[in-house]
Amino acid sequence: xxxxxxxAALPLTACNQGxxxxxxxxxxxxxxxxxxxxxxxxIDAKQDPDAPRLLVRGVIDLPTPDWRAQLRETHSDRAMxxxxxxxxxxxxxxxxxxQVVTSRHLTHVSHAADHGYRSITIHCGDQALAELTDIPTxx
Length: 139
Description:
This protein has 139 residues and is α/β, with parallel strands linked by helices. The protein has one helix spanning 2-29; strands at residues 35-44, 53-62, 68-76, 83-91, 102-111, 119-124, 127-132, 137-138. It folds into two domains: 1-30; 32-138, no CATH class.
């Protein structure tokens, strides 16, 4: 009898966990960006050659004016030089807002790797908005 109850409960538990994962996947994949453009990246070693900075910039269009967006470095691959991946974190507007496509300029500044970068990829949800492969060093 104990085996029967365990066997009956197991599929229900598995279904319940799967539904939560599907909901999380849908939330992760949502991308409110209508359009993106003007992505660039450079390594700035002018101000301090001993501590170069990586600057990543771009413009995104969002469906309403009150969205907040921020670039966040997520991970780099193990190639040499590495490819670095960024995600855009969003905070949606609260309450009713005008339905007007609005541009947001995004900038990320961080410590740069000494050996440069092979590529920089900007992700929004499950899609890649841009892949930058020309990352000059400004000295």
